[in-house]
Design goal:
The chain has 125 residues and is mainly α. The chain contains 4 helices and no strands. It has one domain. α1 runs antiparallel to α3 and α3 runs antiparallel to α4.
Length: 125
């Protein structure tokens, strides 16, 4: 029973992590069709700067952290609901919620620090 519960929890968390990648407002194939339409076979791809690439990576990382945070909150809330008043299980659920919030605060704080450093010191021209 415990193995089944762990397996279902793993599948649920994996679904939460993978699900956002299947939601597209515009398909990737339509972007590929646009590449050759301007100059025929001589169309060039647009260049992205290092700052844009780093920003994209940070944005993806923060999105992943947000999904993990929501997953942990749902998991802890479910555990709290099914605890049925058992103090030990309620304490474990509360600890999970506290740790998830602390992780989110650390992640957002690190982004704020990085954004401050990047905008004030690195991006000087």
């Amino acid at each position: 029973m415990k193995i089944i519960k762990k397996f279902l929890t793993f599948i649920f968390i994996l679904t939460l992590l993978v699900l956002p990648y299947f939601v597209f407002a515009e398909s990737a194939l339509s972007n590929l069709e646009k590449v050759g339409s301007d100059n025929g076979p001589y169309a060039t791809a647009s260049e992205t700067s290092l700052a844009e690439t780093v920003g994209l990576i940070i944005n993806m990382f923060l999105s992943l952290m947000g999904v993990i945070f929501v997953g942990l909150m749902v998991y802890a809330g479910y555990n709290w609901m099914v605890a049925r008043g058992e103090e030990e299980k309620v304490t474990i659920a509360k600890d999970t919620i506290k740790r998830a919030i602390i992780g989110l605060v650390i992640t957002v704080s690190s982004y704020a620090i990085w954004n401050f450093i990047f905008s004030n010191f690195i991006n000087i021209q």
